[in-house]
Design a protein that fits this description.
single chain, 216 residues, mainly alpha, Arc Repressor Mutant, subunit A, Tetracycline Repressor, domain 2, 2 domains, 0% strand, elongated, Tet_transcr_reg_TetR-rel_C_sf, TetR/AcrR family transcriptional regulator
Amino acid sequence: MSENNFKEWYNSSQTKPMSEKQQKIVDAAIEIFSEKGFSATSTSEIAKKAGVAEGTIFRHYSTKKNLLLSIVMPAMTNYIAPFLTKSFVAEVFQQEHSSYEGFIRTILQNRYDFVKEHLSVLKIFAQEVFYHDELQDQFKETFTEEVYPKFLDVIVHFQEKGDIIDVSPQIVLRMTMTTLIGFIISRFIVLPNNDWDDDLEMEKTIHILISGLKKR
């Protein structure tokens, strides 16, 4: 979902139609939060970009945090979380994989494509999830209920086949997630302007991870 598509979805998802000023506030907040982060963004900046008085923001949202949550929480609850679980599970966990490397390759490509398509709102989420309990709780619920048990089942399957080392599946999961998420965050959040060769970087990431997990 591109930034424009997210704005269209957000506007259409509201149970009560937003006024023209509210739409301008939300559009401006998405753009600036994504670029600068929540803490570095002032309501006066949002108001200036939206072409409204700063008091209009507080009249609709009371606080800057309420404005943030009004953008991210509906997206997580009604769009991104369901899409993450249903699509991710269907596209990754319901496929047959001949090796753990093939499984990892599918995950990395799937999440790379997902983040690239939904970058604006996911940047906001990634920047703020460590600072807001509401966002952490939503993410934990989504991951632990839908993804975590299926991921462990796959790991145990390939351990039983002798494809990867026989250590705690939770350790394998942590190694896998840390490596893959580290690449995604570096690529899209920390160093997005680097001269990336994405295909090569993904191959190197997979190679390093599998070299450490492969049973010898």
